[in-house]
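thought: fold this chain, then report.
action: predict
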Amino acid sequence: MLLYDLCATQPIGSILRHGGGIYGEMVFFKIAEKTNKFACYYDSRKWINPKILDICRNNNIKLYDLKSIQFDDIIDSYTLLYSALPDERAKYVKIRKIFTVHGLRSLEAPNDIMRIRYAIGFKSKIKELIKYYSDNIAKKRDYDNFIRDYCWDSNNIEIVTVSNHSRVSIELLIHDIKRKNIPIRTFYAPNTIDYLKEDAKRNGESYFLMVSGNRYVKNCLRAAIAFDELISEGYLGDVKLKIAGASEGSYDYKFKNPDKIEFLGYVSDEELKSLYGGAFLFVYPSLNEGFGYPPLEAMFNSVPVISSCFASIPEVCGDAVMYFNPLSIQEIKNRMVQMLDKEVRDHYILKGKERFEYIKSKQDSDLNSMVDYLLEKSK
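observation:
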């Protein structure tokens, strides 16, 4: 029987909801649609989506609370453990296990000196400088950790990943995976964005939108600098830039046109829905993604996208976005100006709608196939 790790859906530190957790919720919901012949564990001392608890109660799905029972007292009763985001406890069980690896960001993302500008205060800057200059050491550590966590029990582990890019990256960067014949299967990350549809009319404030602005790997500062320069050069008129996830003072950089850039901090799902609904352009300068939901969220809301060409993004977005080198401010500026042309915008809006439907169909099919695979393996 399958044992499902719901701890993977619970908060990580101060982050209430995170990508791996939402992914884990979607897989759980699909399994629960098909059967109640599986069990789950979670920790009641942390937040969990109430819908999960309701489904378990209403469908008589066995639910263990790690507040009152030891993990080691559970595991031997089951034939397969699945985790969407395995922690140390899950990685070292001796039963069969299937884990989702969402990508290898720490190994393949470029070491970008711009990360220093995301650090505020002397001590934070020193820490980031140390990380920057010790990047090769960190990559070696992360490589060793992956080998330790995922290759120690090669006869009893399988890996699921969320894009073909991530699958090939794992095969190329982690040589033990191929040498030990550890299976890797690609199932596209499930669709989670239907709730973000917004039918707002874009007849008011004109703005570009970016998300996850506080994380250097998302590279929003470099795109904000590109925007700021275009404002100074007279190309963008009254257009503004809204950055979700970043607050005033998130960057150690003095913009020439601060009145044109709005830092929104954390935004709720409802606020994000409204932001997508009113955006003139979505800008996605990320340096690394295992899958990459935000461009699809924009496409779903008929917002044209300019995007980084790195990692999994071209696989997911196809020809429905205009790409740029995310390390080139000049190239980002070029794409922003190109997208001011109505004919170009209309082309990418149409392409985006088509691409969203194509990817959604594959996501739905892959989620169904993945759940069937887990249930078959747990017999």
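thought: worth noting. The mean pLDDT is 93.
final: tokens above.
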